[in-house]
Amino acid sequence: MSNSQSEVSTELAARDDPRLNEEFVRTQPATSDRHPAMLVGVVHDHPASSYRVREVATAFDPDVLGLELPAVAVPYFAGRGAESADGGDDAAATDEMTAAVAASPDAEAVGIDTLGWRFGYRFARNAVDERASPRTVGRAVGEIGHIARHALDCRLGAEGAHRDALAHDVTAADSPTAQADDERTRVARSRALLGAFERPHADLLLDGTREQTMAANVDARRRDGSVLAVVGIDHLDSVADGLT
Predict the structure, then answer these.
(1) Terminal Cα distance for the chain, rounded
(2) ∠ CA 201-26-237 to the nearest 5 degrees?
(3) What is the value of pTM for the model shown?
(4) Are residues 174 and 47 in contact, defined by beta-carbon separation less than 8 angstroms?
(5) To 10 degrees, what angle do helices 74-85 and 134-156 make?
(6) pLDDT 10s digits, 92-114
(7) Are 103 and 186 in contact (CB under 8 A)?
(8) CA angle 219, 144, 71 (to 5 degrees)
(9) What Rg, from alpha-carbon coordinates, does the chain have?
(10) What is the pLDDT of residue 5?
């Protein structure tokens, strides 16, 4: 049985580690027909994010681990996570998806992002509701194709299936404060960049549909047990809002 969200928050706050800042964590309490959920926002491949995911997963002990991945790609990361948990990989250096699996050995790892019927239905509905042009839909579909190809590469174990780790100015060997400061700086830069330009309609259509799909998939799995979801920081608020 998972630990309560209040117990998790109390335990992590007592650690006094800046990487565990609750700014990047969202909670959804249990209801009469839903188990509790926790969402952790990450900067992909950042050591502070990987650390936060591991610690929240260990403290919460979820029944279901939802990853910002298509379902077809999950076995690849599940295998990496199992190797990491067995000491075959340096847990401090892994990406956040692998770290989440390694820290949740008893949880069912599932993909909550794209390529399922929920995504297809919402994408078609949103395209119609937003009166997206054929050009916009075509560009969004092209991006979906890239996601699908990468997911299949992961499933087939193709060489180089796991994208090269994103370059960051800190590593897991740096101090917790340095890692947390660098992570916050990257989040602030990303948000400033997103706010400075008008994003193409295709990007908004795709991301909006992905976030709706992730929220729906997390909500559906809350009927089975407690859920910990790991999502990119730019998706965190939208996915959390979709659960309320």
Answers:
(1) 23
(2) 15
(3) 0.91
(4) yes
(5) 40
(6) 456 899 999 999 999 999 999 98
(7) no
(8) 45
(9) 18
(10) 80
pLDDT in tens, 179-221: 999 999 999 998 898 788 889 999 999 999 999 999 999 999 9
**Which own/partner contact pairs does 20-24 have at CB distance under 8 Å and 24+ positions apart?**
20/52, 20/55, 20/56, 21/180, 24/49, 24/52, 24/233, 24/236
Burial class from Cβ neighbours inside 10 Å (0-12, 13-18, 19+) for residue 152 reads middle
- Pick the closest to residue 114 from 65, 67, 66, 70 (CA basis): 70
**Residue appearing with tokens 């998790």:** 8
Lookup: tokens for 160:
């180089």
Q: Which two tokens stand for residue 103?
A: 């820290």
Domain residue ranges of the chain, discontinuous segments joined by +: 5-242
